[in-house]
Amino acid sequence: MEVLVKPLITEKMTELSEKRGQYGFVVNRKANKLEVKQAIEKMYGVTVDSVNTMIIPGKKRSRNTKTKFIVGRTSAVKKAIVTLAEGDTIDFYSNI
User: How many CB atoms sit inside 10 A of residue 31's CB?
Assistant: First the structure.
């Protein structure tokens, strides 16, 4: 099972990482806090202080096509907000 799906790179998460040392990730729905902590420590070589998780429900989406009106839902995702130890940082842009 792949625990980390992708990092969250938004304005809000960038501000949190600069001010508080917190980073956001989209994680597998079945992953628990311990698995998230171990995966981040292994992948980035940092020390994790705490992990907060939340499940974001899918949103309704609709659109008009030439023939009909289509209604659907986006899939639900699980987010993890990770607080690192003092002095540790993660650089998402180094591999670009």
Answer: 21
Domains of the chain with CATH codes: 4-87 (3.30.70.330)
Q: In whole angstroms, what is the distance from residue 60 CA to residue 81 CA?
A: 25
Which residues in the chain show pLDDT less than 70?
95-96
| DSSP string for residues in 27-84 | E-TT--HHHHHHHHHHHH---EEEEEEEEEPP-EEEEE-SS-EEEEEPPPEEEEEEEE
- Give the pLDDT of residue 96: 60
What pLDDT shows up at residue 59? 95
- For the record, the structure tokens of 2 come out as 């792949």
pLDDT score of 23: 95
Neighbouring C-beta atoms of residue 30, cutoff 10 Å: 9
